[in-house]
Design goal:
Length: 403
């Protein structure tokens, strides 16, 4: 369409105090058929963002096209994706949120137009567009059971997210902090996007490189590093990507197939940033315990605090520690490491468990060996009882004096 015609239409729109959104959308469709994407974007710019969102939601049938049984983004949606990203995101997030469109269907429609395979800078750009969209969607709906209870509507989207995060750990998308000074803060704000990250992750590499039982370390130093090691101001872009992936794997969103793919990745790339933590997050609970016993026993206490809700749930961990320690020669340095970890775990349970539960947690065959811990728990229970009795007595006495 000649530029002169566009100029006339722009002038007419500018002389109208408040152009009707439906009229603007109709003109945009004319330009879409006869002009260029840039001209369509110029016409749409005559509306405020919220007006454009409202009119597009009313006419959402214009955003997708189906050909030969496959659905893809329409030319109008492509203009929005390339020139009006915020509007594009808000419109499609709303459509998915209200059930008009599934997240899987959106991903399929997007990828049909913007392939995300690693084929160069252009495809990386498309991958980032899709990742940013999915993150904004889950920022709003990750904790909404009406969405998360229907895995069949979002599982492929999560698979795509996992693959993109793994690619970012390998440096696929570069360091965006050099282009945008706010990028690092924006990524750090997403570190618990999908679910809270367990604190024990801060005791694993790359946040703590000294938690292996093969190295002599100061336990107090490990505890200090557990108090938010991920909050360092100099976190690299790769570490920021790792935080978000750890959050995703800490949630129930990834399928067993997704976790299997992550395990395959870390086995193929054992030196990748955060490989140990990703490996751990993709194991079943008993396998997690075995992995930590073999490689990172010093994080077991924090693991128990993060994972177990009641004292009795510690029973498998205590039994595993006792058996693992028993299988080591007392002269080996690791024997002392496991002995110290067991003592720390038992001290935690002494402070939190009723005596009857504590006795059930410790295998009966080891009661004599661990009688000091049992005695401490008995003393703690007695102290708690006496304190409670004194408080009750004092309250009753005050009540009588007030009469």
């Amino acid at each position: 369409m000649p530029a002169a015609v566009l100029a006339i239409i722009k002038q007419e729109l500018s002389t109208t105090s408040e152009p009707r959104p439906a009229d603007v959308l109709a003109l945009a469709l004319v330009f879409l058929d006869r002009g260029s994407p840039e001209q369509v974007a110029t016409v749409l710019a005559s509306l405020r963002a919220y007006q454009l969102v409202v009119v597009l939601l009313k006419h959402s049938n214009l955003l997708l096209v189906t050909e030969d049984g496959a659905t893809r983004l329409s030319p109008l949606a492509q203009v929005l994706a390339e020139h009006k990203k915020e509007v594009f995101t808000e419109v499609f997030v709303s459509l998915i949120g209200d059930g008009t469109l599934s997240l899987n269907a959106f991903v399929d429609a997007f990828v049909a137009v913007y392939p995300i395979v690693s084929c160069g800078p252009e495809c990386n750009m498309h991958s980032l567009w899709l990742r940013d969209f999915l993150e904004k969607f889950f920022l709003e709906y990750a904790h909404n059971p009406e969405i998360t209870d229907h895995r069949e509507r979002y599982d492929r989207a999560v698979t795509v997210l996992v693959s993109l995060y793994l690619a970012s750990l390998m440096g696929a998308f570069g360091d965006k902090s050099k282009e945008d000074p706010n990028w690092s803060d924006q990524r750090a704000a997403l570190k618990e996007l999908y679910a809270p990250r367990p604190t024990f992750l801060n005791l694993l590499p790359p946040f703590n490189m000294e938690t292996s039982h093969e190295k002599g370390i100061d336990k107090a130093e490990v505890e200090d590093k557990g108090q938010g090691a991920e909050s360092k101001e100099d976190l690299s872009s790769t570490l920021l990507h790792l935080l978000v992936l750890q959050s995703l794997l800490s949630s129930e969103l990834p399928s067993s197939e997704d976790r299997a793919n992550v395990l395959k990745f870390v086995k193929t790339n054992p030196t990748a940033v955060g490989a140990q933590s990703l490996h751990l997050l993709c194991l079943e609970p008993l396998q997690q315990m075995e992995y930590m016993l073999d490689h990172f026993p010093l994080i077991l206490l924090q693991y128990g605090k993060d994972v177990y809700d009641t004292p009795i749930e510690w029973v498998d961990l205590v039994s595993a520690l006792i058996n693992h320690k028993a299988g080591l020669p007392s002269s080996d340095p690791p024997h002392q490491v496991y002995s110290d970890v067991l003592n720390d775990v038992l001290s935690e349970l002494v402070a939190t468990s009723p005596l009857d539960v504590f006795l059930r947690i410790i295998p009966s065959t080891h009661h004599e060996e661990l009688r000091n811990s049992i005695r401490q728990c008995h003393s703690a229970a007695l102290a708690t009882y006496l304190r409670s009795s004194l408080i009750t007595y004092a309250n009753n006495l005050l009540a009588q004096m007030a009469k």
